[in-house]
Amino acid sequence: MPSSSSFVSAEAETRNWAELPLDAISSILHKLGHVDILMGPGQACRSWRGAARDEPELWRRINMLGHADLSRQLNLHGMAQAAVRRSAGRCEAFWCEHAGGHGFLLRLTDQAPSLKSLHLVSCYTSSDEALTEAIVKFHLLEELELALCSNVGGSGVLGVVGKACPQLKSFRLIKDVLYDSEASDYDKDDEAMGIATMRGLCSLQLFGNGLTNKGLTAILDNCCHLEFLDIRHCFNVYMDNTLRTKCARISTLWLILPKLGDVGMREQFIRPQASDRGFPRIISSSSMDARGDLSAIENQVHKLIDGLRSDSIEGQRSATSEIRLLAKHNMENRIVIADCGAINLLVGLLHSPDAKIQENAVTSLLNLSISDNNKIAIMNAYAIDPLVHVLETGNPEAKENSAIALFYLSILDENKGRIVQANAVKQLVELMDPALGMIDIAVAVLANLATIPEGRTAIGQARGIPALVEVVELGSARGKENVVAALLQLCKNSNRSCSIVLREGVLPPLVTLSRSGTPRAREKVFYFR
């Protein structure tokens, strides 16, 4: 006699899912992400397509984030258009990445007149012009995020946001720190002045912004309702007593202070306390309640450090691989790894003859350097020369990660001379071979080093100028932005370098860039006039 489970199985196999009641299908769809709906269930059959297409409530808050890895396989731009269209004018929140070009933003103003929340992430085709034209129609907007949108920014468009969106309560501007290198005469407070017009802000996050104390002061003076402020990786802000007094009213303040003498205070979480008499009390990020019990991680790291010290190649490979993974995603792990003394050992392993150990070590250091406490510790471990050694001897992934690590270190002025002295410029110029695929990161580091005399001299001696000029004509959008900044520094400070730049034929591609480049590239070309 068949068992009861076999009857259940037979019934499930013969069930017609297309005949499910509409409310049941709708309930299932509401538990799925919008990209998932457009890719799968929304295409399954007529009843499921109808439920996915004809229920505007399903598309009232559209979240298409988290699919960047599929951007080359999927038409995320087309999916975004379909999602907004299905909202039938009821969309109140739209979050997307790798979509949102000029035409789309204008259509969004027509199809989502009640929009309250807009998040644009890695939308490289969006521009100041498109956002300016669209934002004036989003009068109800309460929340705006512009993350890694390299062609959007500046006081002009942000000032328009401030005037057009009186109900705006939350704003996030996250810059691509790795490639956001600027000429020395770039107005670092340009965006801050635009943000200062957003007078109703309660929450502000600026990550990797170039603002100085002047810009932050303007924001604090004009945005009187701020309760949350995050300015991590804003390396031009110095928390003096004047700013501390102005920040006393902020409930939650996150910042990194890159040039204080006390290394232990580089990364800070600040929360005003009644006992501080009007000044925020500075609390190390490692003391936050969210840390929890890290004893298990500490025990694991201590065992891995024994592996780093091992004479066994396999032991070192295993230990560096595990530390690389531990440091990849978790900030608390990064702090524990450094506190346990791993950084000096990892720096030593950059000279390992084993390519995999070297790759794991440099990638671990790159992951650890995301914490600014660790960035200083890496510098104190004399890592620059070993990192340059990896540029010369490592496998492709190790070279790329070493260049990225050097970029982060070159953000601080005091490190630039040491990087040049370690003969990094010659290796970086060699990385600009198009066959290696590392032009963008090499140019980003060179643009930073070109801001000091030794860096400019080294670029000339390494025959870097012809390679830089070639990027103006053939490079990526990011590469062109940074290469113009580097060439501008070379031309402003040396007639000989300027002659070489002109002799290499830079003018025709500069003219083209001034007409068709990104807004930021066009702005930098302007300074050549």
UniProtKB/TrEMBL annotation:
The keyword Disulfide bond does not apply. ARM repeats lie at residues 341-383, 423-464. Keywords: Ubl conjugation pathway. GO terms for molecular function: SCF ubiquitin ligase complex binding. InterPro entries: ARM-like, ARM-type_fold, Armadillo, F-box-like_dom_sf, F-box_dom, LRR_dom_sf. The keyword Zinc does not apply. PANTHER family: U BOX DOMAIN-CONTAINING (PTHR23315), U-BOX DOMAIN-CONTAINING PROTEIN 4 (PTHR23315:SF7). This is F-box domain-containing protein. It comes from Triticum aestivum (Wheat). The lineage of its organism: Eukaryota, Viridiplantae, Streptophyta, Embryophyta, Tracheophyta.
